[in-house]
Amino acid sequence: MVLFLISVAGLAKWIDWFAAGWLVAILLTAMFAPDMQVSINPPLATLLLSSMNVAFAAGLLLPRLMRVITFWPLALMIGVPLIAIGTPDDRATLKWTGGLSCVLFVGAAAQLPQIKNENWFSRLAVRFGEWSYVTYLVHCTVFWLLFQAFAGY
C-alpha cells in the first residue's frame, strides 16, 4: 500500500531514498525498541518498522544497485555466510541475515541472461514470473490479514 501511495503521489523517482530511510528506521527500531521485533504478527501501527520488512526494503534498492554492482560475487562471499550465521533461535538476527542474503541472491539471479519471449514455453515462463512477482508484492499483506483473522485459533 505504501508503494502504491508513493507512486500515486508521483514520488517513485525517490524510491531509493525512501528504501534507504526505511532500512535505517527498521535498524534504529531494532536497536532502540527490540521488543517491537519479537512478534511475527505485529500490530498494524508498527508493521512497517518490523525487521520482517528488511528484504522488501532492501529489494527496492536493487534496480539502482544493479547498475553499478555485479551481485554474484557478493551473493557468494556475503550471502552464503549470512545464511550460515543466522539461527532460528535468534529471530531478530535471522530476519536481517536472511533478508539481506535473499536480496543478494535475487540481485545475482536478476543479472543472469534473461529469457526471451519467443516461443510458447518462454511466454509461459514469463507469465509465471509476472504472477510470482505480483504474489511477492502482496504476500506480506495477505499473511498479516490471515494472522489477524485467525489469531485466536
Question: Mind explaining what this structure looks like?
Answer:
The two termini are 27 Å apart. Helix 5 packs antiparallel against helix 6. Helix content is 66%, strand content 0%. The protein has 7 helices and no strands.
Provide the fold topology.
Elements: H1 2-8, H2 15-32, H3 54-59, H4 62-66, H5 71-85, H6 91-110, H7 120-149
Helix pairs in contact: 5-6
From the spread of the alpha carbons, the general shape counts as: globular
* Rg from alpha-carbon coordinates: 17 Å
Secondary-structure-derived class:
mainly alpha
In total, how many beta strands? 0
Show unreliable segments.
Answer: none
Q: Name the average pLDDT.
A: 85
Major β-sheet annotation? none
Order of helices and strands: HHHHHHH
**Roughly what percent helix?**
55-70%
How far from one another are the termini?
27 Å
Q: What number of structural domains do the residues give?
A: 2
Strand content: under 5%
Question: With helices defined by DSSP (H or I, 4 residues minimum), what is the helix count?
Answer: 7
